[in-house]
Design brief:
5-stranded mixed β-sheet; alpha/beta; 28% helix; 220 residues; 7 helices; elongated
Amino acid sequence: MQQTEDEMGTKREVAGLVRIGAGETQAMRVLTDAFAELRRNHPRVTCQLYTGNADAVEERLERGLVDFALMIEPVDVRKYDHLELPARDTVDVIVGTRSPWTRLDIVTPQTLVQMPLLVSSRTTHRSFDLAAWSGGLVTSGRLNVVGTFGLIGNASLLVETGGVCALGINHLLGLQTSALRFLPLEPQLTTGSVVAWKRHRIFSPACEAFLEQLRATLEQ
């Protein structure tokens, strides 16, 4: 009710709440830059941020609990309107500095299937297409999966013990610690992101203004 009152309270100034669900990715900077610019022009616009993997974020989008969903590919966006983001994330194997695997410089498909791995708990969409990356050498059945995680933050504490490794995105802020190393995959594996919203959704003035600013930011 408060959100509706804020949005309808004045026609002279855009106001209201923009709800964004997002995965852990550097591509989020595009959305935060867009929102910051929107706030400079319309200071009564506020935001609500939710962080989760693609399954959780898409569920909230379907339930109307977020207005925009930033999801790491692969995702099925056929039922949504969406924008593809230009930034791409690099997928690495994250190891603790106390792990025997830390001596490696790269991780090949043959090595990956031997490592004790924590992997994303995503089920609606695969996390990464390892079969295509490895030319069919790495399948889900061949991986030595010892656990799953929703978000990498708490999982990284287990990786720090040295007993397990994790397959995840490089350059995330919470993972920049001396207790962890990022081992690049060979060949390199990258993944993109999309911003999606429900088709035929009637947006509030705040959400319309955010989408307009997001498009402008992407064009710059």
